[in-house]
Automatic annotation (TrEMBL):
Residues 350-373 form the C2H2-type domain. InterPro entries: Marf1, NYN, Znf_C2H2_type. It comes from Brassica cretica (Mustard). Residues 370-380 have a biased composition (Basic and acidic residues). Residues 370-390 are annotated as: Disordered. This is C2H2-type domain-containing protein.
Amino acid sequence: MSGTETAKIEVWWDMNDCPIPEGYDARRVRPSMERAFEKIGYTGPVSITAYGDQTKTPDHHLLALSSTGVAVVHTISESTRSVMYRDMVEWRGQNPPPGTMMIISDQVEGDFSWDLARLQQRNRYDLFQANSMKSRDDLLLVYYANWRWEQLLEEGGAPPPVANGLSSAAMFYCKSCNFDCQSLKKFRKHLSSYKHGLEEAINPPDTRLSCVTKTWARNYPATPEHATAKIHVLWDMNDCPIPEGYDARRVRPSIEKALKEIGYSGPVSITAFADQKQTPVHHLLALSSTGVDFSHTLPFRPFEMPVLVTSAEWLWDNLLAVSETKRHILHKCSESESERVVAASTGMFCCTLCLCDCKSLDDFNKHLSSKEHTKEEKRMTSHSQSFPHRQRQYKISNYYDEASRISSQDQTYEESSPEGVFSPEIITFY
Ligand SMILES: [Zn+2]
Ligand SMILES: [Zn+2]
């Protein structure tokens, strides 16, 4: 935590998923949340917005909420999730970190957490959640705490005797009509009006979640601080193999050219991950002669697409063809290209099963046929057969370890690979 202890806390609460329990005094919602936050050291001002179909919420609850400074938002039930998310994104835009976000909802999985995880990667807020269901594993979002709704409600003491320090801002909102007011009477009148009914029938709020990060996977030009920074490429040769008849020595210049075209000119180190047994010797030699490291790993597929903000993405075949088209046009350039100093990588061979580095292909082959290696490979294979889930994690952990290693060495870095950019910061695998 950095300064977030006293930063503002914004709460988005889906009243349909997490309703006020029967017989519960709704004035206790705010102090309960405040108490829960205080217990873990968060003392910033708490702002709460309750979303739901408020035509179904009894008056005494709405009065209790508004009297304790909880903003009440009406929307049709099917749109609650998307309306809440839109408000969340808007809040993020207006409130740069530090800050704390709390989501009270049972519907955070899917696009919601995918998009939010990507937003978190750019601007990180402390994130909290409460839900009424049994807690599930959310692989995408990292929460600082995950509460059960009913437990959270029992945190607080007595409700405040009088409303104090409440702002005069609007307390009741109708998202269907963009209407707001400060009195429950006016709110009720609005919700039962013909105009409101018509608006909801004709033009209801969008029920689909609009993902703001979907357009992010574009090839943006390098920012100045990244233009000359080191580039590390983690290349999965199973997903993106060397095409039939393609000269593997052209992989490095192709990647370098593609990067250069969008302004990245830093030294490029490349590590190819593949099963050595499935990689022809001439490829291994071609790669190592162009300074591409080779990492022997068993062909396990990563189990999910990474939820990562990429600065650029290419189709593998397109990327490889980049140098080909250029070569036809610029014959002279391809000459100097081959004389180019091979930067950063050394063309080493590495066995990721035994964590063994070899400088030459001969040594590498010797290692791969050694007893120690065979034993290790057998152990890995039998292990992953009995635990299929492990297989996938194993491969990812190779990438992850590699990415972590690099990020701990370099202060500024931009990792690029045909598959995307890895951020050791946000993705966690257990
Ligand atoms: Zn309305
Ligand atoms: Zn080995």
